[in-house]
Amino acid sequence: AQASAPQATLRRTFASTAAMAIPKVQKAIVQPDVQSTDVTLITDHPVPTAKPSSTEHLIRVHTTAITNGELLWEKNFPIPDEFSAKKIMVPCNDVAGTVLTAPESSPFQPGTEVYARSNYFRTGCAREYSILLTEEMAKRPQRLTWAESATVPMSAETAWQALFVQAGLEPKAGSAKGKRIFITAASGAVGTWIVQLSKWIGAEVIGTCGPDNVEWVESLKADTVLDYTKTNVKEWASVEGNKVDLAIDCFGGKSLEDAWWVVKKGATLISIYQPPEQKMPAGVEGNINYLFFIMESKGDQLQKVTDLINTGFGKTALDSSFPIDQFQEAFAKLKSGKTKGKVVIGLGVN
After folding, report:
1. CA distances (Å), 149 to each of 1, 155, 168, in order?
2. What distance in Å separates the CA atoms of residue 180 and residue 322, rounded to the nearest whole number?
C-alpha cells in the first residue's frame, strides 16, 4: 500500500536528515589476521555506500550478535577469491538496525527498523553502519528490544529451514499433530527456535541439554527434556514408543551419534553441524534418511517469524549484551562456553 502524504513526508525528512548525518568513518571490530581469533576495535573504518541500481541498503546498526566459532570460519573454510578481495574481516552477521538509504522500489524505506542475517561473503556488521540486501531483511518485531532482535535471524531462519524446507513439514499451527521431533542442544540459540516452532505446529517435542538448562527447555514447552549427563540416549530410544519421526541435531559429535538411535525406520535425521554419516554408529538399521545443510539468508522466511513474534509467540535466546567498547568482554563471554543463548554487541540506538 502507498504511504500516506504525512508518512511520505516523514520518510523524506528522515532520509534527508540521516544522509546529512552519515559520517565518513566509523567504529568497527576487525579481525586483522584470519589465522588468529584476536579482534580489535578501530575508529577509522570507512562507512560503506550502497551501490546504485542494486538491492543494497545502508543500515545504522543498533545491535549485532556474535555466532559461536565464526572467527575460525575464514581459516577453516576460505571464501572464494571474488568475494575475499572485497571483504573486510568485520565479524557478526546477525544484525538489527534502521534503514538510512534504500532503493526507490524497496519495501524497506529510510526509517524502517529491520533485522537480518547478512551473507558471510560480505563485510560483517560489528560496525556502526553496514550494508544489507532487500532479500535478506525483514521488519523487526516491535515487541522485542534491539538486543533481543539481533539474536533471532540466523537461529530462527535455521530452525525454519530445518523444519519447513529440509524436513518438508507444513508451516501452519497444528499441522504436525501426531509427529514426534527429537532435538539435540535444545537449549542453544537454534535449538530454542526449533523447539518452539515444533510446538507451534503441534508436534511432540523431545529435547536434550545439560543440567543447567533443563528448566529453560521446559519453559519452551518441550514435552520431554533429557539431561544428556544423566540419560543414555541409546537406551532411552530402545524403550518402545520413544523413537521419533524427525531428529534434528544442533551440536554434532556424540550428540549426533546418539540421534541416529532415536529415529524410526524410514524417518529423517537432519544435522546443522556436520554431515550425519560422519557420526553414524555401527549397528544402526532402518533405511534412515539423513542430510546436512547450511542455512541461507531468506528475508521472506524471517518476516514470517516476525509475524509470529508480533502475536506474542516465542522466547528469544539472549544471554547478555555489551556496548561496542566492551567487545573483548563480549567475545570472552561467548568463548567461556557458559552462555545461555546469544551474546550481543550494542552500537547505539540513535
Report:
1. 26, 11, 27
2. 38
DSSP SS3 for 186: coil
Write the single-letter amino acid at 140.
R
Q: Give Cβ neighbours of residue 94 (< 8 Å, ≥ 6 apart).
A: 64, 65, 67, 115, 116, 117, 125, 150, 151, 152, 153, 154, 342
Q: Of 171, 201, 195, 176, nearest to 304 (Cα)?
A: 171
Q: Give the whole-angstrom CA distance, residue 227 versus residue 139.
A: 36
Confidence of residue 71 (pLDDT cuts 50, 70, 90): very high
159: amino acid identity, one letter = A
CA terminus-to-terminus distance, the chain: 28
Coil, helix or strand at residue 163: helix
Could you tell me which of 320, 316, 350 has the C-alpha nearest to residue 334? 320
**Cα 33 to the chain's mean position, in Å?**
25
| Joined grid coordinates for residue 280 | 553414524
How far is residue 330 CA from its own chain's centroid?
Answer: 17
* CA nearest neighbour of 129 among 49, 56, 20: 49
Its pTM stands at 0.92
Q: Are 80 and 107 in contact (CB under 8 A)?
A: no
What sign for the dihedral angle of Cα 288, 289, 295, 300?
negative
Burial (CB count <10 Å: 0-12, 13-18, 19+), residue 258 = buried
120 to 76, 84, 143, 278: CA distances (angstroms): 14, 10, 28, 25
Q: Please tell me the distance from the alpha carbon of residue 319 to that of residue 231, in angstroms, as a whole number.
A: 26
C-alpha cell at 163: 523444519
Contacts of 179 (CB under 8 A, 6+ apart): 169, 202, 203, 204, 245, 246
By DSSP bridging, strand 342-346 and strand 56-65 are: antiparallel
Q: What is the mean pLDDT of the chain?
A: 92
**How far is Cα 127 from Cα 44, in angstroms, rounded to an integer?**
11
The pLDDT tens digits for 194-216 are 999 999 999 999 999 999 999 99
